Amino acid sequence: MRREVGVPVASAGKLPVILRGEGVERLHFRPSGLTPMVEAALGGVGSGHRPSQPRISTTDSYATVSSATIVPFERFLLGHWQQMTLIGLPVPLVGLRESILEQPALPALTNERYAQTHAAYEAASDQRPGLQKWLATELPPLLADRDPVRVVGVGVGDGSVDAPLAAALAAGGRRVRYTGVEPHAPSAAGFAERLNSLGLQSLVPTVVIGDFADHDVGHPADLVHFVHSLYYVEKLSAALDHAFSLLRSGGLLVAAVAPLEPLCVLTELLCPWSGRTPWFAEDVHAEFDRRGVSVRTETIVGRLDVRDALVDPLGRGEAVLDFLIGARSRALEPVAHDRLLGYLRDISLPGHPGVLPHPVDVIIARKP
């Protein structure tokens, strides 16, 4: 069962609030000034409750609360219902959901189309440069005592995130053994070329073309990372278990994964998952919480520019739309296609139509 509510804010529009089962997992609301009220309601800064219960992230235009611990819906409403209106999803998404129920599942992207659209999507977002910089700056100090340092990257693609990290780890001539696991052969070749082109004698890159579940690193790893790759694993718990099994005691498991916020709400709705469950940051937090593993989380807030998609959705904006929903967007019926574009307008940053919040959570756990 899924229930959605929204918080009204003058002319800023409404963002969806996702409630799973009988508890609150994630709230989307505007403006960020509502944060203190939500903190007090869910437990957090100044509330007297355990501060680890909710996680609250805020940008200039919106704020998000997520709770790995199930929080009763009534607890949030109690004393604060005056500020809320039960509205369901934004109107365009309600209509879109109704539209797609009336047609077959959308055709999934081929591996080739996925690679093409992914490149266009990354070019339309400023998230990746921020993620590259953060990983290359923050992770090396956490592994300062390791030489050689052994890294396993899962779903490394063409290595665009891995190369800056590998270079930072190899600073000062430190030995780095960097293994990239990637199922798509052309992307794996790009990873190998990119890391070899760094020209660092102390860096030894290896690429494995295949599934992570079948991979055995041979030596205990110091770092296993998933950068935007956990969405695609069949069983999240099994993937994390396997990652922990590859780590030495004290090694780092890092997951960069999107929270279930407006963009991913759309992806979850439209992507042809073929019976698989899509995993988001909330699910990863729940898995770590279930294991009793403490984590550190940093939210990198990017922006995705979909203005081309809004003005030319069947032309220069089509690739971004396709990657966003994980399917061929032109297969949508005209009414559904219009509602898709309407939803993107609805979740745009205030004053910036077609520019969308594009956050990623970086979750860091250390193996006991």
Automatic annotation (TrEMBL):
Q: Biological process (GO) annotations?
A: methylation
Could you list this entry's UniProt keywords, alphabetically sorted: Methyltransferase, Transferase
Annotated ranges, domain Methyltransferase type: 154-253
GO MF terms, alphabetically ordered: methyltransferase activity
Identify the Pfam families for this entry. Methyltransf_12
Q: Which domain of life is it from?
A: Bacteria
Could you tell me what this protein is called? Class I SAM-dependent methyltransferase
Q: Which organism is it from?
A: Mycolicibacterium hodleri
Lineage start: Bacteria, Bacillati, Actinomycetota, Actinomycetes, Mycobacteriales
